[in-house]
Design brief:
Two copies of one chain form a homodimer.
Chain A: H1 3-7, H2 13-20, H3 24-34, E1 40-41, E2 47-48, H4 51-65, H5 70-73, H6 78-95, H7 99-118, H8 122-135, H9 138-158, H10 164-183, E3 193-199, H11 206-217, E4 221-229, H12 231-241, E5 245-249, H13 257-269, E6 275-279, H14 281-285, H15 287-292, E7 296-298, H16 301-311
Parallel strand pairs in A: 3-4, 3-5, 5-6, 6-7
Antiparallel strand pairs in A: 1-2
Chain A binds a DNA duplex through helix 3.
DNA sequence: AATTTCTTGACGAGAGTTGGACACCAGCAG
DNA sequence: CTGCTGGTGTCCAACTCTCGTCAAGAAATT
């Protein structure tokens, strides 16, 4: 504990390895190939690193983490190393903030998620999706990870590249993550109410779940009525909840005449001041017919968000 | 930025690609087809770009992002490029909302939060902060709303513009929002462990809470030991949890000699391979002294995140 | 005695290089 | 509308270079 001892502290290779994050092998290789440090030796020949060695190695390790290669930086002085590191790190701190940095990260999450699906690793998939919602915003995570993921899975499933098991695993994980996201949304007590679901014969759920979550995050109270629901049930839910808006997901089957009948029935059963919006592939194909019933057809989620905000401008601009 | 110092650094293609956002393929293609730069070569024939090359390529990349095509701008001088880019970007700033729109939203949340503080409206403040975390990402919400808010409150409190009641209300709301954020973080079972808190005599908590939340969101398991904790207690917590990292928030009082003693005591009590990092105003003022104890001093949260990622690279790049 | 560290040498994954091919898009001519 | 052409980003194959890792046997440390 004397000051003399404190300055003379020497570290064995194990301590240096753990503090710098470099393996003992690497420490020896760097010393031999690039002479980055020349540690003292014990009587038996074992390396004893000084604090100065430790600092130099730490700086080198940080520079490596910043994308440098050891051969190029092994000769630099401490001061040069520090300059290099601060330049690299501030650069990196900035780049994660730009729009393109974010775009890049979103596609990175997407490919990881897709890999988890093909690996049939549900735990991994769920974790990737949760991390995406934490590191990107919820909105970006839905638009640029979850929706593209489902789309890609659908395409590959149709092409026979993946099995129904993969598709099912993806659905389950996405459903759970959406439920988790929605549970952490905060809805003010005086929020307007929206009914979300799919009408009769539409037997898919994820589209509606995504719409429900999106609606929640725009500060609406959501009454989620599930899928394949007859017009009467939707009308009852609307009346009881006092909803101003009904959002219907129409994906499959497309081109079913029954669907138009159902939509018309809903339109007739609820008060005319309730706005009904539809989205999804099946809605696109029947675009004109649906419009004649006085319903809106939405092409994508951002458009839906804009609609929501125009219906109920939140105190927070945009 | 003196030219004498800047000349030392040469950049491998990987760094240039990351900083400019251009792919290595593009860098080579531009060099071959348009001679936009002529990088030096290493002994092995690998490209080594100077700072000047880097700047030129960055400008070209921005011009490309602005809609220009490489063939038409490859001959332009740096000045001409700058003019072109500012013209393009001001043009675009008027028409659409991109990165600036996000920045704008963050500052919008911030001013709403500040208004809630001066109005002594805790419910509103909490809701604004929660919405900020939902609409921005958690990371951005912390960096650009919560931290600036606390800073502004501190400044106004010091200037006597607001009362202790305002300051207290802000602390309570922020603390609750942080707790909520942390509860919704997902930590994988095999995550490394970090101990977070403040040492003895440091009687503030929010800084440590923010660090704890940030650490959680980087997929670490956090042992939060609270504030004003003696060195022995921190050492025990470290040992029992098997932590690899101790993160200490040092804000107030600054310049207290006692603090350095405490830090030294912690350093001596825990195994040398445990990394200790410090941050906060008091850490900055004692920067050099702390560094001699083998501890890192962190300037801001982005730098802390980079450190965390270098210690435990998550499967998700960046 | 068990574990760690040392040295030397070699291996191989990954990154970088070159030359060339290819896909895509625009504009323009037939 | 179709086909051609030049401009560009991307990809591929084969090779080289870099650098982390491993193996094996000896020595030191605990």
């Amino acid at each position: 504990m004397s000051p003399a001892q404190a300055t003379a502290a020497l570290h064995p290779v194990r301590v240096v390895a753990q503090r710098t994050g470099l393996s003992p092998d690497v420490l020896r290789a760097w010393e031999k190939r690039y002479s980055v440090v020349q540690p003292l030796r014990s009587d038996g020949g074992q390396r004893l690193y000084t604090d100065a060695d430790l600092e130099r190695l730490s700086l080198l390790a940080r520079a490596i983490a910043g994308g440098r290669s050891i051969g190029q930086i092994s000769d630099l002085s401490l001061r040069e190393l520090e300059n290099l590191i601060t330049a690299d790190e501030t650069e990196r701190a900035n780049s994660s903030r730009t729009a393109q940095g974010r775009q890049l990260r979103a596609s990175c999450f997407l490919s990881l998620a897709m890999k988890a699906v093909t690996d049939l690793d549900m735990f991994e998939l769920e974790e990737v999706l949760r991390r995406a919602t934490m590191h990107l915003s919820t909105v970006v995570a839905i638009d640029e990870v979850i929706v593209p993921l489902l789309h890609e899975v659908g395409v590959k499933w149709a092409a026979g590249e993946i099995t129904p098991a993969h598709e099912h695993l993806g659905s389950v994980a996405v459903r759970r993550v959406l439920a988790w996201m929605q549970s952490s949304a905060v809805v003010p007590p005086n929020a307007p109410v929206a009914v979300v679901g799919t009408p009769a014969d539409q037997r898919h759920e994820l589209g509606a779940k995504i719409v429900a979550t999106t609606t929640s995050y725009e500060s609406w109270k959501v009454v989620y009525v599930g899928s394949d629901l007859p017009a009467e049930a939707i009308a009852v839910a609307t009346k009881q909840s006092g909803a101003r808006l009904i959002a219907l997901s129409l994906i499959y089957p497309t081109g079913c005449p029954h669907m138009l009948e159902q939509l018309k029935a809903i339109r007739d059963l609820v008060p005319p001041e309730v706005l009904i919006v539809t989205g999804g592939k099946a809605a696109q194909t029947q675009r004109d017919a649906i419009a004649t019933y006085g319903m809106r057809v939405i092409a994508n989620l951002p458009e839906y968000r804009i609609l929501l905000r125009s219906l109920h401008p939140s105190p927070i601009g945009l």
